[in-house]
Protein 1
Amino acid sequence: MKHTAGIRAFGLHLRRLRQARKLTQYALADYADISRPTVQRIEKGETAASLDVLLALAHALDIPLRELVDAPGIDKLA
Amino acid sequence: MKHTAGIRAFGLHLRRLRQARKLTQYALADYADISRPTVQRIEKGETAASLDVLLALAHALDIPLRELVDAPGIDKLA
């Protein structure tokens, strides 16, 4: 999997967004209609979420997609 | 596949970004190190690109990821 640095940066960003709203991984997974292990793997940077999952997460967090992916360092080449 | 409206909106946006830079699908695929059929399916809204592919496309177009996904209508629920 390429762009691992960007994917890890996104995972950290997602975790911060979730925790800022005092949501558990279960709650976020439930709102986004995805599995909790998927949320866990995305937050750990182990999985590159697909656009439909990114859209589901943005809707669950009630933020625009561009904000969801605006993670510090995500555009760094690696 | 859920969020099909958002995925289609992204495909159109990607096509506009590519054409604005006078790039063929082949050229964009080459720069992003992905296959041309993948670019084609993404532009047609048939495939939900994963985060690593989105990052590769953003780098190929030399724009931040948040700009790449800032497609009109992408956040509409459907």
Protein 2
Amino acid sequence: MAGVSETTTESGTAPRRGYAKGRAKREEILQAAIVMFGEVGYHGASLREIASRVGISHPGLLHHFPTKAALLEAVLEHRDEIDFADFDRDLEQGRTMFDALLRLVQRNALRRPVVEVFAGLAAEATSPDHPAHDYFAQRYPTTVRRMLTELERRAGAGTLRPGIEPAVAARTIVALMDGLQIQWLYSLDGPRDARVDMAADLKTYLDLIVVDPAS
Amino acid sequence: MAGVSETTTESGTAPRRGYAKGRAKREEILQAAIVMFGEVGYHGASLREIASRVGISHPGLLHHFPTKAALLEAVLEHRDEIDFADFDRDLEQGRTMFDALLRLVQRNALRRPVVEVFAGLAAEATSPDHPAHDYFAQRYPTTVRRMLTELERRAGAGTLRPGIEPAVAARTIVALMDGLQIQWLYSLDGPRDARVDMAADLKTYLDLIVVDPAS
């Protein structure tokens, strides 16, 4: 999608400028949706309110996203694109998975709205009839499996600490990241010196279960 | 509150029977609210729908809970009453805090709706203008401090493992419990042998940071 957008923007003909404008408006709606889903959840969000926040009509918004569920899907895809693009680049550049994970958590600490919407949706969508349910129901086991693969690699390389059970450690790394996000979000309204440092706490845990997480 | 209810129910005069009936209806509304907040969150929940689920009119519900925020407050108090009553009794009976905590998590695994509503509200209420924001913003530091007190006691008693920093461990215990709830909720729809065992995973973590969590 990003590639398509670049090509058309560079070409500069009138209909394509229109397309680029449409892409920019779509992006604006997406950002407003991230903020609003973060504020009041998926069920509490209103397409009319999102349209009003980006200065377009309700039918104008429906032109980009015909349903609230379609907008939700786009928000989830957007988050994955952001997260995985950087994360995968870190891995390609030879960083270990846990090093890449710590860097991802550090980046998250700079973008409250994205963390807020994701933590909120993950908790809201535990109900089987929520439109994001299947997304998260698949995402958790997938993420845990990725952790497990890395922990088993480390077991083979002798950098897993004695007595650590990879399957349990894999689940608890993911659980810890989720739980720290919630405490971090609440700590943002408190005094600065009481702010939760998600990456530092995760690093402390990784140090407990593996030898030198970053290598 | 529970004491008041018992007294009036036992007395058996007509107006008091009416009061007991009112208490029963109030309890019914509370249970329906727990389910509905769990399903669609606070913002997504509708008082009309909750009233309809317990077979009363909308004004009838407003007689018990004049606003949605009042109902939310009652749900949060109810959860605390349930949790802390059992937890505190365990402590009074001489169990250690971590033993009591593991028992609390085991009880939670038997009551999906309560876990669902609480995990959902905690994530939804990270927005400062959410009516449950202050509740959770205070609850997290309070819970973390309780863990910290126990970890410091253990440090003094020599049952904290070497190299464990009590302040970090206190935050991560709470974070782990939150995160495991989310994975557990999603695992309930999957195959039985892939179900997350929250208490077992928490126990594994506690074993890493203290010597014999249950003693």
